[in-house]
Amino acid sequence: MPELPEVETTCRGIAPHIVGRSVREVIVREPRLRWPVPRKLNQLMSGAQFLSVSRRAKYLLLETERGIVMVHLGMSGSLRIMPADTPPLFHDHIDVVLDDGRCLRYHDPRRFGSFHWLETQQHPLLDHLGPEPLSETFSGAYLYGRSRGRRIPLKQFIMDGKVVVGVGNIYANEALFMAGIHPARAAGRVSEMRYELLVTAIKQVLGDAIEQGGTTLRDFVGGDGSPGYFAQQLRVYGRSGQPCRQCRTALKEIRQGGRSTVLCPQCQR
DNA sequence: ATGACAACCTGTGGGC
DNA sequence: TGCCCACAGGTTGTCA
Description:
N-terminal domain of MutM-like DNA repair proteins, 25% helix, four-stranded antiparallel β-sheet
């Protein structure tokens, strides 16, 4: 479900509901996520007040006065605010019950997501992450420099979190189309000028998707329950075989690193 | 260091 | 209608 825009939408959606609130209790119904959920989460968090909500890569950082809850939504995770007495559905694995009678509920059928407790801002999973795609340091010159000597296909290169975070399969496809570059081109053989175009495209597509509240595929909804509206604007993702919006050529689908890539063989070289 | 690939898990949709 | 396989928005770990 979530790529960076969906995580950012969740971040903005839940923040107003939890900042300033205190934790009444934490209910862990299913601790077997990507990594085991700490058994002591309830003990650690009960009574603590939330100070801020932020995002690093696709991790949500829920800061309390005692420590930070680091949440990843994996492929199918979501966080919603709802009345604490709402009967849990199948796959509603964790409730963070608040002092106002509501709760932050974590739902994740595939259990690829995670909950960590951090005593400080430091964590091994955050150590080797690349720059944020919407930051100043993520530039054409940066990508060009990082790509020299690399033979990896360009799409896999920009989806590598050590290079840049937050570019998932949907938006990698979209950005490469927007920049007019073939996804299978070796990263090390792309010019600096084309990397400038690509970086501009990545920033634009992510920024637009965030503005629209993320891409609704299947049942994604933001923290307040409202759907995202970006799906209707997708240029190539999910449109294999359909005509390119620019040249009407049939879009082609290939597989890269086990993920599907959709491209226009005419517009992307 | 790099790149290829399996692994984690459930749900869904297409083809037969 | 029902069964089986392939695939789905992510990331880590292992191996050559």
